[in-house]
């Protein structure tokens, strides 16, 4: 399990996402994480997807954000919380000409964080395409490792993709591909500097 703290930042240089932790998961909050995501103009998450067991909610704080939620596509209302229950197809992107900032709530978040750290790590190392998606063999082992966290809906239907993963994943692993990389998990997020103590007043 990756430990994150308020102020920690994760960045995906390909999709343009910069995510800063506001509230870290804990037993007291149901393993929820609250973060602020900043996305540059033209930036987007890496394709429409489903979280089988994770609830999300989005609140646009600044900018213009396009949101696909199930069969609806809309411009998310500024300041209005939009819920995305587990199992809902969704996607979002910066639809404006300036940076967009969203408050994102993720419950439970522990495995989500591990998934994001791996996906962002692949992007940092130049191992994704322009949309932030890994190559086929990497995607297959990634999909198998994080099947409990995310399912991408673009491409083959889920039953077909599941069969492909079952056949191809062992070969991909033999070739050295990993669904979750210890190297990425060992890289700590960018940690906010500690606030220096105030000098005692004389």
UniProtKB/TrEMBL annotation:
| Gene3D superfamilies, sorted | Jelly Rolls (2.60.120.10)
SUPFAM superfamilies, alphabetized: RmlC-like cupins
Organism domain of life: Bacteria
Q: Which residues form the Cupin type-2 domain?
A: 37-102
A Pfam family matched in the record: Cupin_2
- Mind telling me which PANTHER family this protein's record contains? PUTATIVE (AFU_ORTHOLOGUE AFUA_8G07350)-RELATED
From the Swiss-Prot or TrEMBL record, give the protein name: Cupin 2 conserved barrel domain protein
